UniProtKB/TrEMBL annotation:
InterPro entries: AA/rel_permease1, AA_Transporter_AGT. It is a multi-pass membrane protein. The keyword rRNA processing does not apply. Its main location: membrane. The keyword Transmembrane helix applies. This is Amino acid:proton symporter. PANTHER family: ASPARTATE-PROTON SYMPORTER, PTHR47547. One of its GO terms (cellular component) is membrane. It is found in: Membrane. The lineage of its organism: Bacteria, Bacillati, Actinomycetota, Actinomycetes, Kitasatosporales. The chain crosses the membrane at residues 12-31, 43-65, 86-113, 133-156, 168-188, 200-225, 237-256, 287-306, 350-368, 374-394, 406-426, 432-450, 471-490, 502-520. Keywords: Membrane, Transmembrane, Transmembrane helix. It comes from Streptomyces lydicus. One of its GO terms (molecular function) is transmembrane transporter activity. Residues 539-558 are annotated as: Disordered.
Length: 558
């Protein structure tokens, strides 16, 4: 198996950076600044920096593993590579849920921004009191989800060709919005009035990182890891594309947050009683209306469709890759990995993702803000295996070619894992409990599948085999139970009951996380010694991107 892929014809570095930027600039910029300001006030700026640093640390750990194993949709496979089938399914399940959830949330974002249209029917799409989609809004979001899915189903080649153009347009719209808002009148007093820079305390800043779309926005880095295996030189392309996309993302999100904070009229802020009272359905569009910037409103209304649609190109591709990878490992039906012989699309996987998207939209996905918090918590769980896989593979596969090596991995990996644990805690109860339970549902499913696979064995032999396969996953199971318990009993600042005082709760998370990290690494080493991780996966586990010989532009197969 050739893992170097150095001369593979596929995505260029520029195309991969564009995929990363296109994914980072989805619906997050449309709502993130308004939601973060409402929770943390001007200190929301700090939340964006914390989020970028956190995601950057996670991304670099995935860069090492992704460059060594350039597998399309590889984030669903790294747990299997490091710990064997049970943890592989558990983490792959978490990654799939996180990525597939992005498909409906982009349609919800576009629907919510329709309320800024000056037509009567658009005003009824969202309940102004709860900011939740009404029945007509839910139907509209469903239609948008299905239309986008059908477009990818039939014309993914055309959409992939247009990805670079869409990304440039998506990048230009927020830049112009920032310039227009600042030029309309920048009120520096907004950064200190009504409680100061951090009016609701620093716990609110930490909460904003995971519940207000900060982690959600930067999560676009996953597209680089999941599709980077199809790059011409993954070892160089993946880390460079990650660094470039995240750096540009941080600069623009800080600019958007600054412009939003400074552009809100002081009178409006005073009437609202502070930042918590500034509650806008379509934050930038509604603010532009207040400032009489009608051309900006029109541009933002256009951007509310371009940004989610562009991001969902990578979301649909990544989610399909997740399903095909889980099918290749045997935990999803093999039929889901089937690729259409003519169109090169994994259509059964796409059908599954569409069904999940519709179910999510009809149940918990009635507003962008509500769904973003749950999705962000699920994303954090999906991040956990990155630094652990680096630690395990450094010990078990020291001779593995690593085109990119994470510097100071012995220190950065446990610190990154501890940061991820804190971010999961900051997601607030009950979201932490919901995503922990949703992730742990995969454990009994894994047990049933493994029992079926080992149907030939009976009695003690079957029991011992199942016990050995479960052993490398116990750290994750107990970690999720521990985090959910801490979240439920912790500080009210993070949604808990207050049985564990504020400050002590964060200390418990930070101090126990390294213990779980080293337990996880040791479990992975033992899994390799026991032969549970099996053979390396082939890079052809999922359909490779199609590239036309005439112009070399990326043609992503879903």
């Amino acid at each position: 198996m050739d893992m170097s892929a150095g001369d593979r014809k596929g995505l260029s570095l520029f195309a991969l950076i564009m995929i990363g930027i296109g994914s980072i600039f989805g619906s997050g910029w449309l709502f993130g600044a308004g939601a973060a300001a409402q929770v943390a006030g001007p200190a929301a700026l700090v939340a964006w920096v914390i989020g970028a640093v956190f995601i950057g640390m996670i991304a670099m750990s995935y860069a090492e593993v992704g460059a060594a194993y350039p597998i399309p949709g590889g984030m669903a496979r790294y747990g299997h590579l490091s710990h064997g089938p049970v943890l592989g399914f558990l983490t792959g399940w978490a990654v799939w849920i996180a990525v597939a959830s992005l498909i409906p949330i982009e349609s919800i974002a576009a629907t919510q921004y329709m309320t800024s249209w000056d037509v009567d029917w658009a005003q009824g799409l969202v309940d102004p009191a709860s900011h939740r989609l009404t029945l007509s809004g839910t139907v509209t979001a469903l239609v948008l989800t299905v239309v986008l899915w059908l477009t990818c189903y039939w014309s993914v080649r055309l959409l992939a060709r247009a990805n670079t153009v869409l990304t440039l347009v998506k990048f230009a719209i927020p830049v112009l919005a920032v310039a227009a808002l600042i030029a309309s009148g920048f009120h520096t007093s907004n950064f200190t009035a009504h409680g100061g820079f951090a009016p609701y305390g620093w716990p609110a800043v930490l909460t904003a990182v995971t519940t207000c779309g900060v982690v959600f926005a930067f999560n676009g880095f996953q597209a680089v890891v999941n599709l980077g295996g199809a790059a011409r030189n993954p070892g160089r392309a993946i880390p460079v594309a990650l660094a470039g996309a995240l750096a540009l993302g941080l600069v623009l999100y800080l600019a958007l947050q600054t412009a939003y904070l400074g552009a809100v009229p002081p009178g409006q802020l005073a009437r609202a009683g502070g930042w918590q009272g500034v509650d806008l359905n379509s934050p930038f569009a509604d603010l532009a209306k207040l400032l009489m910037l009608h051309w900006v409103v029109t541009m933002l209304q256009f951007g509310a469709f371009i940004s989610p649609a562009g991001s969902n190109i990578a979301n649909v591709a990544s989610a399909a890759y997740m399903v095909t990878n889980l099918a290749e490992t045997g935990f999803f039906p093999r039929k889901l990995a089937a690729v259409h012989p003519r169109y090169g699309t994994a259509r059964p996987a796409m059908w599954l993702n569409l069904g999940f998207s519709v179910l999510l939209l009809l149940t918990v996905g009635r507003s962008w803000q509500a769904l973003a918090g749950v999705v962000s918590a699920a994303m954090v769980i999906s991040y956990l295996i990155g630094p652990i896989a680096v630690g395990v593979l450094r010990r078990t596969r020291p001779g593995l070619p690593r085109p990119f090596r994470l510097p100071a991995a012995g220190v950065l990996c446990p610190v990154t894992f501890a940061f991820a644990a804190c971010a999961l805690y900051w997601s607030k109860w009950p979201d932490t409990g919901k995503v922990a339970l949703l992730t742990l549902v995969s454990v009994p499913v894994a047990v049933l599948v493994l029992r079926r696979k080992g149907a030939g064995a009976t009695g003690r032999a079957a029991s011992d085999r199942l016990r050995s396969q479960l052993a490398p996953a116990w750290w994750m199971i107990l970690f999720l139970v521990w985090m959910a318990t801490l979240s439920a009993l912790g500080s009210p600042d993070f949604g808990g009951r207050g049985l564990i005082p504020g400050g002590l709760d964060i200390a418990l998370v930070a101090l126990t996380a390294p213990a779980f990290y080293f337990w996880a690494v040791r479990a992975g080493v033992r899994a390799h010694e026991a032969g549970l991780t099996g053979t390396e996966p082939a890079t052809a586990a999922a359909p490779a991107p199609i590239v036309t010989p005439d112009d070399g532009r990326p043609m992503v197969s879903v």
